[in-house]
Amino acid sequence: MNSAEKSFLCLALFLFALGGISRLGFFSEISPLESVFLPVNEVAVIDTINAIDTVVNELVADKEEVAKSVKHTREKKPKKKAPAFPLPINTASNEDLCFIKGVGPSLAQKIIDYREKNGNFRTAKDLEKVPGIGAKKRQAMEEFVRFD
Q1: What distances in angstroms separate CA 111 from CA 41, 80, 87, 108, 126, one per listed residue?
Q2: pLDDT of 5-40, one tens digit each?
Q3: Distance (Å, rounded) from C-alpha 113 to C-alpha 57?
Q4: What are the extents of the domains in the chain?
Q5: For residue range 75-84, what is the model confidence (pLDDT) as tens digits?
């Protein structure tokens, strides 16, 4: 018998024993079946229903307030529209450069910084002079950029 079977057996025995103890009446003076069939005061039932109704209405009102506040905080930002490719590398902004596969915000900033410091890119080989761009990345970027 493995550990899962032992655990299941222990749980089954525990529940069996608990059922036997509850039938003997150790937990309350009225057994669960007797409490179902006892006569109930109608006024008490109506008061209980009204109390439950009040609590439910309060919860629904709270839920609506929370939903309104969440709705206002979850406003979606408009998605950035991808620029037309091939992208002019010498005039592209940081956000536009980030649409190129393999170029993130930091590499885009490095491209812009290099362009401002050293002038426009003339060929694809010039991209390799930017720190972080090697031959493989340059080849991957070539189809997405143009040199004006």
Answers
A1: 82, 20, 13, 5, 11
A2: 888 877 887 777 767 666 665 555 555 555 554 555
A3: 60
A4: 39-75, 87-146
A5: 666 777 777 7
Task: Please state the φ and ψ torsions of residue 88, each to the nearest 5 degrees.
Answer: -70, 105
Q: How far is CA 139 from CA 87, 101, 123, 125, in A?
A: 15, 11, 12, 9
Residue reference for tokens 């609590």: 55
- Which CATH number is correct for 87-146, 1.20.1250.20, 3.30.420.40, 3.40.250.10, 1.10.150.280? 1.10.150.280
Tokens 């059922």 -> residue? 19
Kindly state the DSSP code that residue 78 receives in the 8-state scheme.
P
Torsion sign (Cα): 111, 113, 119, 120: positive
- Asked whether 96 and 83 are in contact (CB, 8 A), the reply is yes
The whole-angstrom separation of Cα 144 and Cα 123 is: 13
Q: Locate 138 and state its tokens.
A: 């340059």
